[in-house]
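<goal> How does this chain fold?
<sample>
Here is the protein in question

***
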Amino acid sequence: MGPMHSPEPTPLDGDEQRALLEVARQSIDHGLREGRLLAVDPAAYPPRLRTPGAAFVTLHERGELRGCIGHLEAIGPLVRDVAENAFAAAFRDPRFPPLQPHERDHLEIEISVLTAPEPLDCASEDQLLHQIVPGRDGLILAEERARGTFLPAVWEGLPDPRDFIRHLKIKAGLGPDHWSDAIRVWRYHTQSFSEDSRRT
């Protein structure tokens, strides 16, 4: 008997997407003004946004990555997760300096809402390669304290599955050719939308 697959959640509708994008923008603006996180009351939002959810918030400035922070598993209401991750992407991504006011108007916000991670049974890299779907699957790869993830959007820059896995291992702090029985991999999907396109 094969592994059980969790049903894909119903995609967020346009109004729900707009509400999350607005919260993300408000969180960043509040951070620029006040220097601290925006307090969000989940009760003020639609039911789907009040339920536990995990999301990544990615920021681009003039087409270049400006920050990306998120959670892989739900730890609270989705709307609060988006607010916290938008603030963190703008001001706490260690790869970038904190966002400055003059950058605000050139910022594009993208939100990726994650499905629950599903463990993959893979005893070898080749077995893993046969299970993943390029362009669709996000992956989490871990070995002891080493851990890394790639959102499905990363396939745009790494379309070859073997390259995708090699770079994910590097991101996790492992060698590109490394494999061991201790490696664990999970798959997830995302619904991504941005202020400009709101694509699903």
Q: What stands out?
A: The chain has five helices and eight strands. Residues 63 and 152 are 18 Å apart (CA to CA).
